[in-house]
Amino acid sequence: MKRAGLDRAVLDDPDARLPHPVVRAFWREAIRETGDEAIGLHVAERVRPAVFDALGYVFRFSRTLGDGLGRLARYHRFLDDMLMLAIETGRDHVRVRLEGVDRMTRPTAEFLLGSLVRAARMETGRSQLDPVVVEFAFAKPRNTADHRRFFRSPLRFGLRRNGLVLTRDALELPLRRAEPELREVLERRVRDVIARLPPVDSVARRTRFRLGQQLEGGRPTAASVGRQLGLSERSLHRRLRGEGTTLRRLLLGLRRELAERYLREGVSINETAFLLGYSEASAFHRAFRRWTGLTPAAYRRRHGLH
């Protein structure tokens, strides 16, 4: 721990946050000490919900796998200021992608993706719940036997993302320990902790804020956002790439998040399209169906609105 720059007093503090360079150094020293190059995956095989504090139990007590993953994505900052979980829903498949950490190390990616798969199997009671494919941004290791044994899925290495793909039907699998009342109590704690955290001054977060300001009735551009941030278009794109994202990805994620929220709150479909910067409601319909597999009207009906 000393070689990684870890102070035991910090480890004893439940509210302490470790900088990513320290985390990278810790994994590096752990591999050096154990000789285990797949240590991130091996730790994930033994992880318990308590490791992730209240958020681990918020996931466990959710109604379905999709609900649980959605809450992990929504409350990611409870665990880490920069790491984000992005969920992309297609017609037949769902991609769960790790974002926000520049140059995520191999053990971090293996630990996080392994933990997600282990939690999905444990909490659904489906030990044979295997991803359609698992994607890694690091180069293919010399030995992938443990990856094949654990994930039991096609593996892809050397990509520009870390993530896994599930069948869309998997999101509807019920979780065995679903407890809505208890989940709500724990969820309030998670929200309270996040609310007390200081703001994180990243270009991606500031860009997302400016996109939200410009969306209503308009079409945000790199030029307009860059002007507000004091950056040229080229610098904005470069800084966002350095933080593991793009302007388009931020805009699509924000539009989807706001679309679902507006529709759940009873905002009309046409008004929602306008608030999200779509010039025509038909374009919003197509985008919403691409995101969720549902039309806006069907989504409203699912949430008891007409």
Describe, in plain words, how this protein is organized in 3D.
This protein has 306 residues and is an alpha+beta fold. It has three domains: 1-35, no CATH class; 40-194, no CATH class; 201-302, Homeodomain-like (Arc Repressor Mutant, subunit A, Orthogonal Bundle), CATH 1.10.10.60. It is 53% helix and 8% strand. Strands 1-2-5-3-4 form a five-stranded mixed sheet. The protein is globular, with a radius of gyration of 20 Å.
Q: What Rg is obtained from the alpha carbons, in whole angstroms?
A: 20 Å
Compute the separation of the termini in Å: 57 Å
Main sheet properties: 5 strands, mixed
Report the helical percentage.
Answer: 40-55%
- The overall strand count is 5
Strand order of the largest sheet: 1-2-5-3-4
**Structural classification:** alpha+beta
Beta-strand residue fraction: 5-15%
* Number of helical elements: 15
Keywords:
306 residues; alpha+beta; Arc Repressor Mutant, subunit A; five-stranded mixed β-sheet
In a few lines, what is going on in this structure?
This protein is α+β, with helices and mostly antiparallel strands and 306 residues long.
Note the topology.
Elements: H1 8-11, H2 20-34, H3 39-44, H4 53-60, H5 65-74, E1 84-89, E2 93-99, H6 106-124, E3 133-135, H7 145-151, E4 155-156, E5 162-167, H8 180-196, H9 203-215, H10 222-229, H11 233-242, H12 247-264, H13 269-275, H14 281-292, H15 296-302
Parallel strand pairs: 3-4
Antiparallel strand pairs: 1-2, 2-5, 3-5
Helix pairs in contact: 4-5, 4-8, 9-10, 9-12, 10-11, 13-14
